[in-house]
Amino acid sequence: MNIEFNKNEDLNKNLLFQLNKKLLQVKLGGGEKRIAKEHEKGKLTARERIEYLIDSDSEFLEVGALAADNMYQEEGGCPSAGVVTGMGYVNGRMCMIVANDATVKAGAWFPMTAKKNLRAQEIAMENRLPIIYLVDSAGVFLPMQNEIFPDKEHFGRQFRNNAKMSSMGIIQVAAIMGSCVAGGAYLPIMSDEAMIVDKTGSIFLAGSYLVKAAIGESVDNETLGGATTHCEISGVTDNKYDSDQECLDAIRKIFDKIGAAEKAGFDRSEPKKPSKDEKELYGTFPSDRVKPYDMVEIIERLVDNSEFEEYKKDYGKTLLCGTARIDGWAIGIVANQRKIVKNKKGEMQMGGVIYSDSADKAARFIMNCNQRKIPLVFIQDVSGFMVGSKAEHGGIIKDGAKMVNAMANSVVPKFTIVVGNSYGAGNYAMCGKAYDPRLIYSWPTAQMAVMSGASAAKTLLQIKVASLKKTGKEITPEDEKSLLDEITAKYNEELSPYYAAARLWVDGVIDPLDTRKVISMGIEAANHAPITERFNVGVIQT
User: Fold this and answer.
1) Rounded to whole angstroms, what are the CA distances from 181 to 164, 186, 199, 203, 431?
2) 47, 227, 328, 453: which could join 196 in a potential S-S bond, CB 3.0 to 4.6 Å?
3) How far is it, in rounded angstroms, from Cα 244 to Cα 197?
4) Rounded to whole angstroms, how far apart are CA atoms 225 and 220?
5) At 372, is the pLDDT very low, low, confident or very high (cuts 50, 70, 90)?
6) CA-to-CA separations, 113 to 149, 150, 260, in angstroms, rounded
């Protein structure tokens, strides 16, 4: 056991080392030279602005740190999609912060930048959190304008969200701390209050070059749209400040005087640490993704006092359902059990697979949590639903549909942590991204795809070989092996949690020890949004 524990710990700590190395690189944005150039202009970087703005010694939960990871390589890359987003505290008030990173392509908007901004706004809207925009962007990245400009979930959607949030009573404060051009100019001006930094901040629908080309007028950018112009002549911005720091101080003063938010009323008691050592997660979680393990051991290292009260413990054993607390917050947990279990009929059931009885149990438990106003936490290590004639005759689709229905219609906030596998319809039933989890994060051990790498590669190989044979090509065993290796390598890259995080299928990849922080801050955010909708599953398969 100790040998296995040490092996797991070594591998998981190596994965964590790789994660931290990647995050350190991401946090440099466009690199040290670009950071130095911002400092020469008297400006802070996006991350320095956030650090200055939020309360000292408070938590900041970054959302989408790995967005666009390894994407846009032909354009020189776009670390963190050129924008930093996350939840933090300003004068004790939790809020969403969105800060353009001018060290990355002058803060220009790539397709993933738009997706990340919209995700930040979505979190603010769902949780009714105030949102702060620290604007410093050259606007749309023109070579890719066709992928960012016209569609429903493209650049323009953020201004629609500005208007919707305003009508919902969600506070929006913007600071123009660098360039703010073209359509992007609407974002700060559609906010409740727009401030600007003198000499470095500017805002206009068209810059001096475009004005010259369009109407023949010669004018410099400062006269066209600088702080003096907009604070003293046009009235577009509200107040100007001499430095980034003064501007950020002014935002803090705004947040010092905001009235209290309504609460959803989720139950919280005094936070307690798990009684089992959290650091043992590294050794408890298996390095071999096929090996069975007891998910209860993982849960007990995440929840307060290591107390987990199971629901229907002896029924539907491949899904664990039960209540616990994390950082004092009451939660309902739905987690995949990875042990091989035996039901009362004497049948063996594979860990990580959802059977009819476990889906039936989970559906009922989810309904109970909605009835009792308990937020739901899904811990994913799922291979999918059981297949085969026995499962089909037993109504697996019907029972799976019941679970999906109860989960999809939940009115309590949902949070998802992908610790291992997240395959196929199992991803859906366990509240994958398509089912509106308030937050979804993965561990470095996560894998996400329609099926496992081995199964997919063999299936894709059969299709490829059949296609080649149709064209009259003879395929030798060596050719097959070469094709299988090529397909497996590509598929395994797409299984990676970094591939998922780059595309915002998950909000980030985290150290397992940060799981409690993610869930606690997530529920605290959700507690700002009273539940107004009645739980209703509609027509449910029985």
Assistant:
1) 22, 9, 15, 6, 38
2) 227
3) 6
4) 9
5) very high
6) 12, 15, 32
Judged against a pLDDT cut of 70, whether residue 77 lies above it is answered with yes
Write the pLDDT tens digit of every residue in 125-156: 999 999 999 999 887 776 677 777 777 777 78
The least confident of 27-41, 384-398, 525-539 is: 384-398
The residue type of 512 is: P
Residues 44, 244: Cα–Cα separation, whole Å: 7
Exposure string (b/e) for 306-321, b if CB count within 10 Å is 16 or more?
A: bebeebbeeebbbbbb
Cα–Cα distances in Å, from 387 out to 125, 319, 384, 392, 461? Answer: 39, 16, 9, 7, 22
The whole-model pTM stands at: 0.93
Question: Do the Cβ atoms of 529 and 169 come closer than 8 Å?
Answer: no
Q: What CA–CA distance (Å, rounded) separates 26 from 232? A: 39
Q: Please say whether the beta carbons of 384 and 348 come within 8 A.
A: no
Q: What is the pLDDT of residue 452?
A: 66
Tell me the two tokens of residue 471: 């064209």
Band (pLDDT 50/70/90 cuts) for residue 387 is: confident
What gap in Å lies between CA 338 and CA 321, rounded to an integer? 14
